[in-house]
Amino acid sequence: AEVPCGSGGPACTLVSAQVNPAAGVTANASNYATITVSKRTSGGATKTTIATVNTASAGFTQFVPRAMTISNTAIAQDSIFTVGITKAGTGVILPALSVVLKFTVP
Question: What global pTM score does this model have?
Answer without folding.
Answer: 0.94
